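FORM 12-B: Structure-to-Sequence Request
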């Protein structure tokens, strides 16, 4: 049997150390990232021990009005973070014990669980999907993310290649930037005009996160010949994968193919040694609506679908 302990800040160093040595954790699970928006959520993250040794973590939050545990509403994904020694049988034991803890300690009636997509794992780590099946979990949401397999690349479309050539001819240059404020002005305008929405993060929040994780959070931008930022992307960098957290272009940048030049450079040069480049999801309303224009643009770079799921378990 495993022992379940609810996370508290006194355990932050132990938590972070485990994330860094796990087989499927990313820096998004470190407390410096999770806790930047701690005021928005009631944290009920769990730590699983066997014979006094930490073997797994579950990033999670609690919604009392729903009597529901989510893993985690402030993260894109948030399933069980596992150590190398965990086997299928032990993961089943952990799930049994965690679900019983949620029922007895919280009075929970439901768990909404978001597995970590397989591309983020260092090795096969889908024992939790089997555990979900054994507990009668039903698919709750499914989003399509577009991913470039850098080791088995599909060619860019002719239209993308043409746009890249045009961008380079017009004198655009691509480089890493520290000017998040300039990029956020472009990003906010795009989201406001196209979707009547705002970025998930404020520029101040992203600046804070970048200061905490400078090796993981990077901004790459495209500049005109006279030095104006036309487009950019915020990249979350992991050892074998990069994820595009935000992408945006000004109207002038769109006309000049700035994003095409940017991602051609990221794929062909800057991150050619990575295994995957994840463009992120192109779905809305829990995956029931596919943004065809957005997914078509990503797939033109040679990206294909990886699903981001969530499952619901009645307790």
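FORM 12-B RESPONSE
SEQUENCE OUT:
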């Amino acid at each position: 049997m495993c022992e379940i302990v609810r996370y508290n800040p006194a355990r932050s160093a132990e938590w972070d150390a485990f994330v860094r040595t796990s087989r499927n954790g990313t820096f998004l699970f470190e407390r410096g990232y999770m806790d930047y928006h701690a005021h928005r959520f009631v944290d009920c993250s769990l730590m699983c021990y066997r014979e006094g040794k930490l073997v797994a973590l579950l990033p999670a939050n609690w919604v009392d009005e729903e009597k529901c545990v989510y893993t985690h509403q402030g993260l894109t994904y948030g399933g069980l973070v596992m150590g190398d020694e965990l086997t299928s049988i032990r993961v089943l034991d952990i799930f049994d014990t965690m679900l019983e803890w949620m029922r007895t300690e919280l009075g929970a009636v439901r768990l909404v669980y978001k597995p970590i997509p397989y591309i983020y794992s260092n090795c096969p780590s889908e024992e939790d999907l089997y555990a979900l099946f054994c507990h009668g979990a039903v698919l709750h949401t499914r989003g399509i993310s577009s991913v470039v397999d850098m080791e088995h690349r599909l060619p860019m479309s002719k239209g993308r290649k043409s746009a890249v050539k045009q961008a380079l001819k017009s004198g655009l240059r691509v480089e890493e930037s520290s000017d998040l404020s300039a990029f956020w002005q472009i990003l906010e305008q795009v989201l406001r005009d196209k979707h009547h929405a705002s970025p998930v993060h404020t520029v101040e929040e992203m600046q804070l996160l970048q200061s905490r994780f400078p090796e993981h959070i990077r901004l790459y931008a495209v500049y005109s010949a006279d030095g104006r930022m036309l487009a950019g992307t915020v990249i979350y960098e992991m050892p074998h994968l990069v994820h595009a957290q935000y992408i945006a272009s000004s109207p002038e940048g769109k006309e000049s193919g700035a994003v095409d030049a940017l991602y051609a450079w990221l794929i062909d040069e800057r991150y050619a040694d990575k295994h995957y480049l994840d463009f992120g999801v192109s779905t809305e309303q829990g995956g029931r609506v596919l943004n065809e224009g957005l997914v078509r643009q990503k797939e033109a770079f040679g990206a294909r679908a990886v699903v981001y799921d969530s499952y619901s378990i009645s307790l």
